[in-house]
Amino acid sequence: MAPQTIDMTAFAEGISESALFLDVDGSLIDLAERPEDVVVPPDLVAVLGRLSARVGGALALVSGRAIADLDRLFAPLRLPAAGQHGLEWRATPAGPVDRVAVDRLVLERLEAALRGYTGRDPGLRVEPKGAAVAIHYRLAPALGPDVIAFAEGLMAEAPGWHAMAGKMVVELKPSGVDKGAALDRFLAVSPFAGRRPLALGDDVTDEDAFAAALRHGGAAVQVGDREPTVATHRLTDPAAARAWIAAVAR
Predict the structure, then answer these.
(1) How confident is the model at residue 118 (pLDDT cuts 50, 70, 90)?
(2) Which of 87, 101, 160, 245 is most buried, judged by most C-beta within 10 A?
(3) Is the peptide bond before 76 cis (omega within 30 degrees of 0)?
(4) Is the bond leading into 35 cis (omega within 30 degrees of zero)?
(5) Model confidence at 14, in pLDDT bands (50, 70, 90)?
(6) Residues belonging to the active site
(7) What is the pLDDT of residue 34?
């Protein structure tokens, strides 16, 4: 069943008892040709701060970006966060960042292979993330199938790693950690524990978070019209998501 379009007032009642898990790129903010070119709308930081207060601090950013990058984008606001699709995790705004240990030699070898591959077209770009590495092809969309095949081929010599395709990007990361596992971890600690989770995201990489929220009796909100999805509700685009967040923050 396709997710239903969410009403602006949906979830407003009882939102103070919810735990919110929000993806960033493509969900809260519009995508850009390069990750460093995204723009955070000027009022979004204040809105997120109000919403976090309304849910008693049970609001986390769950993103493919590194936590340090999230802190930079939303400064001076700091929130609980899961970065690099769960490879980084921070329970509280001022708490330490836990990072999954990775084999640096494997990571360096994969990054070198991707950099060699990107020499075939200026529209391809490698993004080191710290514990993972991604290759973007937003500026060369016709190469998408080749990029995905090349990245998946690298996994034959990288046991314990996998290639995760998203919107015009493929990320190479250690297996066994994803956004769903990050949600499970948040929901085991205060102030998230005992609350109804709501996960919001736009990409296939958010499906694990959606599934985790549903397992815990919560809801999942897909931003955009991507199919298939396990999401229960839909918002049309990041502008609609920001409008909804502003409404429930009030």
Answers:
(1) very high
(2) 87
(3) yes
(4) no
(5) confident
(6) 23
(7) 85
Q: Which single residue is written with the structure tokens 């958010």?
A: 206
The token pair that represents 215 in the structure block: 């397992």
Task: Write down the pTM of the prediction.
Answer: 0.91
Neighbours of 45 (CB within 10 A): 15
State the span(s) of the chain assigned CATH 3.30.70.1020.
104-174
Cα–Cα distance list, 35 to 51, 145, 171, 225 (Å): 25, 21, 13, 21
CA distances (Å), 182 to each of 81, 125, 168, 189, 211, in order? 9, 27, 23, 12, 12
Say if domain 4-100+177-249 classifies as CATH 1.10.645.10. Answer: no
Please check whether the domain covering 104-174 is classified as CATH 3.20.20.150: no
